[in-house]
């Protein structure tokens, strides 16, 4: 099979390697595609702790495709079944996954891309946010995740204030149901605008979906007393400081909405399959850029540089 191997900072090559064989309790997937996650960007930059070359297919974890082989003891799945899977070397033509980490895709999703892991992540973050009708919810950072959360919160009956840097992202937020949009330009100006929009009370829920220090600071500032601050951004470039005085004074509930239990990931993927198949959620406008496997480097660069009109890259196989 063909698989991507990162050979150094910003360097990737496609190698021909042996197909993986499913072990007991595993299935093998003939992959159709894999989403490109922003969490790949730190390894792509080549930090000191990164080891090159990577294993074939490494870093790809948003794959979907068709089961083409079953390991010993697998039941409930069959060859030819189209699925999304939680696997970890999906920048390749084939990958293996535990049978318990595979979610069937119904006929309603035939022919449609389905990067299950990020869609499931959005469902899990939404569940932990405890968003209810009548609440005011700010979402700080409108990328793929922020746009999905905007739709979910709006459909739950919340009033969404979307805050993001790019005009294109704010247009997407409005299309996905945001009642108000604010450019992420001036820290104090944003606070004053949210204060005006909420009658001085600020927001019942604030979801930080950027992964940087300033948006985290801003998110706390616009969360109301006894409100809930949800950290959905992927903070991987060093320690963070928090304004504990503010967190204490307002009595905030702070939720780190990142999951690490594979069973919870899979629960979210199942919920995402149901939402998309039923028509309640349509993520297709968010898949803005598609690349073949041999242009994975371009896909990673676009995910880093975010050119105008970019939200989410898919690698197709």
Q: What's the end-to-end separation, in Å? A: 11 Å
The CATH level-2 architecture of the largest domain is identified as Alpha-Beta Complex
Number of domains: 2
Number of strands: 15
Roughly what is the average pLDDT, rounded to an integer?
97
What are the segments in which pLDDT stays under 50 over at least 5 consecutive residues? Answer: none
Reported for the largest beta sheet, the result is: 7 strands, mixed
Topology-level CATH name of the largest domain: Quinone Oxidoreductase, Chain A, domain 1
Pfam families: ADH_N (PF08240), ADH_zinc_N (PF00107)
Protein name: Zinc-binding dehydrogenase
Family: Belongs to the zinc-containing alcohol dehydrogenase family.
Cofactor: Zn(2+)
Task: Provide a short characterization of the protein structure.
29% of the residues lie in helices and 28% in strands.
Q: Could you explain how this protein is built, in words?
A:
The protein has 317 residues and is α/β, with parallel strands linked by helices. The chain folds into two domains: 2-104 and 283-316, Medium-chain alcohol dehydrogenases, catalytic domain (Quinone Oxidoreductase, Chain A, domain 1); 119-256, Medium-chain alcohol dehydrogenases, catalytic domain (Quinone Oxidoreductase, Chain A, domain 1, Alpha-Beta Complex). The protein contains nine helices and 15 strands. The protein has helices at 41-45, 116-129, 144-155, 167-175, 187-197, 213-221, 244-250, 262-277, 296-305, and strands spanning 2-8, 11-16, 26-35, 63-70, 82-85, 94-98, 102-104, 136-140, 159-164, 180-183, 203-208, 223-231, 253-256, 287-292, 312-316. The strands form three sheets. Strands 3, 4, 5, 6, 7, 14 and 15 form a seven-stranded mixed sheet that branches. The protein has a six-stranded parallel sheet with strand order 10-9-8-11-12-13, with helices on both faces. A two-stranded antiparallel sheet has the order 1-2. α2 crosses α3 and α2 (116-129) packs across α8. The termini are close together.
């Amino acid at each position: 099979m063909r698989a991507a191997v990162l050979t150094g900072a910003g360097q990737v090559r496609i190698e021909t390697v042996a197909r993986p064989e499913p072990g007991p309790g595993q299935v093998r997937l003939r992959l159709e595609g894999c989403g490109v996650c922003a969490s790949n960007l730190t390894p792509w930059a080549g930090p000191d702790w990164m080891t090159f070359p990577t294993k074939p297919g490494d870093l790809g974890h948003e794959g979907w495709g068709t089961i083409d082989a079953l390991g010993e003891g697998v039941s409930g799945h069959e060859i030819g079944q189209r699925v999304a899977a939680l696997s970890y070397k999906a920048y390749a033509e084939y990958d293996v996954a535990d049978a318990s980490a595979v979610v069937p895709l119904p006929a309603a999703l035939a022919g449609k891309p389905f990067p299950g892991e990020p869609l499931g992540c959005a469902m899990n973050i939404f569940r932990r946010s405890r968003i209810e009708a009548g609440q005011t919810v700010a979402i700080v950072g409108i990328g793929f995740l922020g746009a999905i959360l905007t739709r979910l919160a709006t459909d739950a009956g919340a009033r969404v204030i979307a805050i993001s840097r790019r005009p294109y992202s704010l247009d997407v937020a409005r299309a996905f149901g945001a009642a108000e949009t604010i450019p992420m330009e001036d820290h104090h100006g944003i606070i004053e605008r949210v204060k005006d929009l909420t009658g001085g009370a600020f927001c019942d829920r604030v979801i930080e979906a950027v992964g940087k220090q300033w948006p985290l600071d801003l998110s706390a500032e616009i969360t109301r007393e006894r409100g809930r601050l949800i950290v959905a951004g992927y903070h991987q470039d060093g320690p963070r400081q928090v304004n504990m005085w503010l967190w204490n004074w307002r009595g905030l509930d702070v939720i780190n909405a990142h999951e690490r239990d594979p069973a919870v990931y899979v629960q979210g993927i199942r919920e995402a399959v149901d939402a998309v198949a039923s028509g309640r959620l349509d993520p297709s406008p968010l898949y803005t850029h598609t690349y073949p496997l041999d242009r994975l480097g371009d896909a990673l660069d676009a995910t880093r540089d975010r050119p105008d009109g970019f939200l989410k890259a898919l690698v197709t196989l």
